[in-house]
Amino acid sequence: MTENFQFTLSATDGMARRGQIDTPRGEIRTPAFMPVGTAGTVKAMYPEQVRETGADIVLGNTYHLMLRPGAERVARLGGLHEFMDWQRPILTDSGGFQVMSLAKLRKLDENGVTFKSHIDGSSHSLTPERSIEIQKLLDSDIIMQLDECVSLPAEHNELERAMELSIRWAERSKKAFDNAKGRALFGIVQGGDNAVLRARSASGLTDIGFDGYAVGGLAVGEPQEVMFRVLDETTPQLPSDKPRYLMGVGKPDDLLGAVGRGIDMFDCVHPTRAGRHGHAYTRFGVVNLKNARHKDDHRPLDEASPNPTARRFSRAYLHHLVRCEEMLGAMILSQINLSYYQELMAGMRNAIENATFVQYCAAVREGWTKGDLPALD
Amino acid sequence: MTENFQFTLSATDGMARRGQIDTPRGEIRTPAFMPVGTAGTVKAMYPEQVRETGADIVLGNTYHLMLRPGAERVARLGGLHEFMDWQRPILTDSGGFQVMSLAKLRKLDENGVTFKSHIDGSSHSLTPERSIEIQKLLDSDIIMQLDECVSLPAEHNELERAMELSIRWAERSKKAFDNAKGRALFGIVQGGDNAVLRARSASGLTDIGFDGYAVGGLAVGEPQEVMFRVLDETTPQLPSDKPRYLMGVGKPDDLLGAVGRGIDMFDCVHPTRAGRHGHAYTRFGVVNLKNARHKDDHRPLDEASPNPTARRFSRAYLHHLVRCEEMLGAMILSQINLSYYQELMAGMRNAIENATFVQYCAAVREGWTKGDLPALD
């Protein structure tokens, strides 16, 4: 533990990096996957179950928490860690992304964004300063600047305008953050799929100076190859002594590709959402437990999994729970998916240390390509 | 453990009885509350969490399981214990009650009942023999006879007809059960709110001879005082050396009153269903966590609860989870309610041993009457 935020790189393998972020609330082994606890809970899981999957840090959504239960209320209740009983690090986003994707009647100008809540239609505003204030009220360990994220494909002018605005908001965020002790502030690189804009964004943010750099504006509609190309062009522009965070990504194959391109941190609702929809991530790839082929299958999802829950119940039982829409199905599959994601992160960390990252990824992808066990006769 | 089913009474206090049922899958301390695992899962809980609340046995619903995943399928998969990974005793009902309350286009005659599934409209039939067969396929430890349960209020003729039919079905059930080794068969007393019919039912069943006797046809619309009067009239008619099971009951106050009238076993969906609807059972009575009075309340539900989960999270957090319809809210409140029910059963068992049952019930009721903590200013 440290009183302040610190990033240490311990190994590299190609562009892939193995490191550790030390925070006053504990260390974050990188590359790291952060489960998403949107409304103060990683859906369908107790906090200790999230920890047991191997997560060092979870993400909280500023947009959801500012609306319910409200940032000032969370602060009065002792902060988000106390509120949800997760005592390890928490990263909060700025709220900007969900304002754009969820809120109604948005209006954005130089100062910030005003919007109506998707829950009750109440009016709210978010500025770079207010976003930082909310994240401090939540007692976040890693705070994100407010930015403007543009969906792809987009016009060059639009990408440029949003990227420049995001840099001005980054400056205001840095000022509002005011070197808060024990917390970190990350800037967010924008610029869409344009290498020149991305480079200008990275340069502008680096000049301001942040504790970490996120790549935003990806996983917003573009093909994976575009995302990977943008990472190839962008991560070399970022300081090597700070963590790099690819926001809102992704599926397992995205994680392999992005770590191989120098990314250290990820968050995504996908593993828990997929679990609630009956999809299990395994070394065989995705297994759709709604499929009737499982209804008489006495075999566990993966008898060789290091996760006891993936070895415990039969596929037939999981199929039954999913078909009956039983909560236990969502609980088990959320656990299985987050465990698999963490297994993948641990595997990549280990491979980077052993300089076998390329081989590790090839072996994992080969398993996915082979696909699921043959159906029973 | 025993190879066979055995009931031992160790203490009585007034009509209240303290005992133990030994089964090949473990002992059941009585008075016992059985959480309901309708479709092969106690909703929103892992099996070990159910056990940790203090449950010795769970109930499975034959109606639900025969429709999904199907009794023959459960048997092929190793039985219900294996299917849901609950290795302790399971009691299954006969399916009759849910046929009457859930299924469509029911048709009942001397032979049994035919109906259409509420899930997909498929046709099924249930006879006393088929019900026993299904329960054996599920590998149930305690099997219930098929009976006909009539809602109250009802005409005398209707109650009498259903009661007499239930005795004939009891005979057929006994024959079909065929003294299955390591399993128990319970008969079900019917007769509505009529003491003469109840006595005739008890006598008829006792003549056939069962391992236990259930009181059915209560908690079907009548006031609590009618239920208690029927118990006063019925339990003395039942053999004292066999367990007595009050089906589908109830709320905490029903449990106190029924144990005081000689009942040994209960099942009810109420604690888990109430939990999914934001209601918590505590020594203060029922706490409605949807209520806005909790939104800023940093206090746990009950700081003196023996259940760590009831001491762990603030009322404000539980309120938040319930308002956001987060699964974790249902998970926590199901756990808290089942724990409170088991705490009550343990308290009654202890009080009967110490011949302080009346005082125990009075103290518990006094706590409920005082009600919840005063709201914070």
Automatic annotation (TrEMBL), chains A, B:
Any one Gene Ontology BP term: tRNA queuosine(34) biosynthetic process
Catalytic residue positions: D93 (proton acceptor), D267 (nucleophile)
The family database entries (Pfam families) matched by this protein are listed as: TGT (PF01702)
Task: State the species of origin.
Answer: Pelagibacterium halotolerans (strain DSM 22347 / JCM 15775 / CGMCC 1.7692 / B2)
> What protein name applies here?
Queuine tRNA-ribosyltransferase
Q: What is its EC number?
A: 2.4.2.29
Q: Can you cite an annotated GO cellular component? A: cytosol
Q: Which Gene3D superfamilies match?
A: Queuine tRNA-ribosyltransferase-like
